Amino acid sequence: MKLQLALDRLSWDRCFQLTEDVQESIDIIEIGTGVIKEYGMAIVREMRKRYPHHIILADMKICDAGKHEAAQAFEAGADIATVMAFAPQATIIETLETARSLQKEMMVDLLGVTEPQLVQELVQLGVTFVGLHLGKDQQKQQQIGSELFDLVEGLSVRTAVAGGVTLKSLPDIIAYQPNVIIVGSGLTKAEDPHTMAKQFKEEITRNV
Ligand SMILES: O=C(CO)[C@H](O)[C@H](O)COP(=O)(O)O
């Protein structure tokens, strides 16, 4: 089970300070959608340069122009890029083919998906990795619950889980055995991100 740091709503300098602070404890560095909108592929390129041994995920949240946008992320140095589950099948297929041709990977973000049928269709399309995601705005009313994991019940697909994960909620999430746990605010807003990341990593290591 891998730990992913999500860099969202941060300045360029803060992204690098935080990453440096927690880098020993994390496996994947996610450059968040808002950060990409602010700084473009330049921040993906710089992250790749500074952290050659970490996995880098560009949270592109692609919903059209799949080939072009996936290639942008991969050519900048990302190992994984994201595409939205609600995107047209043609877009999802374009991103999967682009990833395959460059030996990279797509994660399909299930934000807003409530029907397991759609996830089954995605798997039939060749999707092998999905993000179970409770969005920032949804987090005001809800917490991550079993309904997210029900979406992939019985399917052969790797999972990442995201949406307000904290040290307190971590054991309940680990119980579902996702492949990746994504933590944004739980680290970026921590008083001491270095120690907090170590605690996340220890808890994950202890429970797998
Ligand atoms: O993809 C995202 C937002 O779209 C975030 O990266 C993800 O939700 C993790 O952040 P947080 O732990 O703060 O919810």
TrEMBL record:
GO MF terms held by the record: 3-dehydro-L-gulonate-6-phosphate decarboxylase activity; hexulose-6-phosphate synthase activity; orotidine-5'-phosphate decarboxylase activity
GO BP term, example: one-carbon metabolic process
Keyword presence, Lyase: yes
First-level EC class: lyase
Stated family? Belongs to the HPS/KGPDC family. HPS subfamily.
Against PANTHER family, the record matches this protein to: 3-KETO-L-GULONATE-6-PHOSPHATE DECARBOXYLASE SGBH-RELATED
- In Swiss-Prot or TrEMBL terms, this protein is called 3-hexulose-6-phosphate synthase
**Organism per entry:** Alkalicoccobacillus porphyridii
